[in-house]
Specification:
Layout: H1 3-15, H2 18-25, H3 29-43, E1 48-51, E2 54-57, H4 59-75, E3 90-96, H5 98-103, H6 105-115, E4 119-125, E5 139-142, E6 151-166, H7 175-178, E7 184-185, E8 209-210, H8 214-223, E9 227-230, E10 240-242, E11 250-259, H9 266-290
Parallel strand pairs: 3-4, 3-5, 7-8
Antiparallel strand pairs: 1-2, 5-11, 6-9, 6-10, 6-11
Helix pairs in contact: 1-2, 1-3, 1-4, 2-3, 6-9
């Protein structure tokens, strides 16, 4: 296979459809279909199982995928210009849960961009795990380390959460009284990671105000009720205060995930270092500010 063949193969494998691959490659679906058919004829094997629902890799396609991805990584245009420590350039997409994407990454990425004006950064905020195998992003930040796939995983930092409510409301004296307030939290059947299942600690099965978005939950708490808030988000909501800090406190962690074949990529290695250091510093800074947000 030449690189053009691999490029078409990878696009269809990730999009699982000719139309989706066509959008990536800026080719029409019919052209993509003909290219895949010719490729399969040359290889003498079907690379995809086709159905009205889309294209799914066959066993032969699954075997071919790692080699195609390795070739893609080897041929990728380096993010850093030249061989030295020149400024970073190009485009990098970072996938992250929306709490991190809303309250941490904008500041961290702005600082990185200030030192690397030729670098373009895209933040993909999703209330689910980012799919790196389909190249939805170059890097992903997660709240638990993935246990499958050819991935490099490193812990970035711990972060904390506490119960919070509006400062003009009477705070509960204990957890039992906290249950008398309307609860704000995740939509129960849309919790995409066990590390986000906080409300069981309150002994409440009912969530009166729910969203799959951390940012929306924060705005809900501004209207009333009680719920868990990331300490690093509290400086963005000055009307909220931590309650029952001595009774309940949660600690979670962020992990940075990338493809194993990117291990030797200087461009991503340098960005990972800057991103990790920036996130650690920003979490520490905002959590220090949040210490003033307590009853």
């Amino acid at each position: 296979m030449n690189w053009d063949d691999m490029r078409v193969f990878l696009a269809v494998a990730r999009a699982e459809s000719l139309t989706g691959a066509g959008k990536t490659l800026r080719l029409d679906a019919a052209t993509i279909g003909r290219r895949i058919a010719r490729l399969e004829a040359r290889l003498g094997a079907e690379l995809f199982v086709k159905s009205p629902q889309g294209y799914v890799l066959s066993s032969v396609g699954e075997e071919l995928l790692p080699a195609a991805e390795a070739a893609e990584a080897a041929l990728a245009v380096p993010l850093a210009g030249g061989q030295g420590q020149a400024g970073l350039s190009g485009t990098v997409r970072i996938g992250a849960p929306d709490g991190c994407a809303n309250y941490l990454l904008p500041q961290v990425c702005a600082a990185i961009r200030a030192d690397n004006p030729d670098l373009d950064i895209q933040i993909l905020a999703l209330p689910r795990v980012v799919n790196l195998s389909k190249r939805e992003a170059d890097l992903a930040i997660t709240v638990s380390p993935p246990d499958a796939g050819r991935l490099l995983v490193q812990k970035i930092t711990d972060y904390h959460l506490h119960l919070a409510m509006r400062a003009d409301l009477t705070p509960p004296d204990d957890l039992a009284k906290a249950r008398d307030h309307a609860v704000v939290g995740y939509i129960p059947d849309m919790i995409f990671d066990k590390e986000l299942d906080y409300l069981g600690l309150l002994g409440r099965g009912r969530v009166q105000m729910a969203s799959n978005s951390v940012a929306v939950q924060l705005h809900m708490l501004r209207q009333g009720g009680i719920g868990f808030v990331h300490d690093f988000a509290l400086p963005f909501a000055p009307e909220l205060r931590i309650v029952l800090k001595d009774d309940i406190s949660l600690k979670r962690a962020f992990y940075l995930v990338r493809h194993e074949q990117d291990r030797r990529s200087d461009r991503l290695g340098r960005l990972v270092e800057a991103l990790s250091a920036g996130l650690r510093a920003e979490v520490a800074r905002l959590e220090a500010e949040a210490a003033a947000h307590c009853f």
